[in-house]
């Protein structure tokens, strides 16, 4: 990480036209609390909980999960912590005994919310643990791999069940709990207006959204050259999601790798991202960059990019913007 980025780590994250933007942190496990606190992040934008479940051959209990979530929430308070519910499957090498069988197409298979809705006891344990942790600070619950309204409603129904159970048991839960859907499957992207009525926020997972939209396996080197964010199809889809969110007053954040790409971050902001969530190694640079352009300029950049017909033209726009800002 460059020294000049670190020097400004704790400066306000505001654009040249004085708009404050949050840069949040993506975490995979609970990396040191100290590091997270000193990271300069506005909170945790994505806690991938899979590692908790993959590190041993048995699933963690509700209490074990509660301790982890509680520690994290306390560590980041008063900033919010976004806990993504279990997203096993796909590239998150499921222990074979967990999902039960080997699949020909794991990325199109039994993963994420699909797995959790069929294992509702396990899902509810996790939801209960998260709800219990919410008494210690602001918690956002994020469902992965939502592909239809039915799935979102079923997940919400289980969340309500968990909440009622805890209330009946007189277990305290927080008052600041939001629920949101990952937008990472094209079928979810096209119904963001419908999903918006059933959640408080969206988070775009560009890693999966791109692979499903472009039909390019995100881990297949042979076709990696096709896994290209500069495509008009990708940018139009992102634009559509942000627009729908805005119309329904649902903030849309971005937690896929694209948020950490210094060429793309300004475009995502110009298209309407409420905040960006990036890994620890990219946080300082993205904050540094945000302090060097205006929101107004990013909106003009977005308009220019949306008019482009080919990836090369988009790339040129993004590079020119980046050079000017830095
Ligand atoms: C994504 O798909 O962009 C995302 C953030 O989730 P993951 O990389 O964990 O699938
Ligand atoms: Mg994903």
From TrEMBL:
EC id: 2.7.3.9
GO cellular component: cytoplasm
Compartment(s) where it occurs, according to its Swiss-Prot or TrEMBL record: Cytoplasm
Record keywords: Cytoplasm, Kinase, Magnesium, Metal-binding, Phosphotransferase system, Pyruvate, Sugar transport, Transferase, Transport
Catalyzed chemical reaction(s): L-histidyl-[protein] + phosphoenolpyruvate = N(pros)-phospho-L-histidyl-[protein] + pyruvate
BP GO terms, sorted: phosphoenolpyruvate-dependent sugar phosphotransferase system
Biological function: General (non sugar-specific) component of the phosphoenolpyruvate-dependent sugar phosphotransferase system (sugar PTS). This major carbohydrate active-transport system catalyzes the phosphorylation of incoming sugar substrates concomitantly with their translocation across the cell membrane. Enzyme I transfers the phosphoryl group from phosphoenolpyruvate (PEP) to the phosphoryl carrier protein (HPr).
Protein name in UniProt: Phosphoenolpyruvate-protein phosphotransferase
Residues of the full protein shown: 259 to 584 of 594
């Amino acid at each position: 990480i460059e020294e000049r980025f670190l020097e400004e780590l704790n400066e306000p994250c505001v654009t040249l036209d004085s708009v404050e933007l949050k840069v949040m942190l993506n975490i995979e496990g609970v990396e040191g609390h100290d590091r997270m606190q000193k990271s300069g992040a506005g909170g945790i934008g994505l806690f991938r909980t899979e590692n908790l479940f993959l590190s041993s051959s048995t699933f963690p209990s509700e209490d074990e999960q509660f301790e982890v979530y509680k520690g994290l929430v306390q560590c980041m308070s008063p900033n919010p912590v976004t806990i993504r519910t279990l997203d096993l499957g796909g590239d998150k090498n499921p222990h074979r005994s967990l999902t039960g069988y080997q699949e020909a197409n794991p990325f199109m298979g039994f993963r994420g919310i699909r797995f959790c809705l069929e294992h509702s006891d396990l899902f509810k344990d996790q939801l209960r643990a998260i709800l219990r942790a919410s008494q210690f600070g602001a918690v956002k619950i994020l469902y992965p791999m939502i592909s239809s309204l039915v799935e979102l409603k079923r997940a919400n129904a289980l969340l309500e069940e968990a909440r009622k159970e805890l209330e009946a048991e007189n277990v305290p839960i927080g008052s600041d709990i939001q629920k949101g859907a990952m937008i990472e499957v094209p079928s979810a992207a096209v119904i963001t207006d419908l999903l918006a009525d059933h959640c408080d926020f969206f988070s775009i997972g560009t890693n999966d959204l791109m692979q499903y939209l472009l039909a390019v396996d995100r881990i297949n080197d042979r076709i990696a050259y096709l896994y290209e964010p500069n495509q008009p199809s990708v940018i139009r889809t992102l634009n559509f999601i942000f627009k729908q969110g805005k119309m329904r007053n649902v903030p849309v954040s971005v937690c896929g790798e694209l948020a950490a790409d210094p060429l793309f971050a300004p475009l995502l902001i110009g298209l309407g991202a409420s905040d960006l969530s990036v890994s620890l190694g990219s946080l300082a640079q993205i904050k540094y960059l945000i302090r060097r352009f205006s929101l107004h300029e990013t909106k003009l950049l977005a308009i220019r990019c949306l008019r482009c017909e080919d990836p090369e033209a988009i790339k040129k726009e993004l590079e020119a913007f980046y050079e000017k800002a830095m």
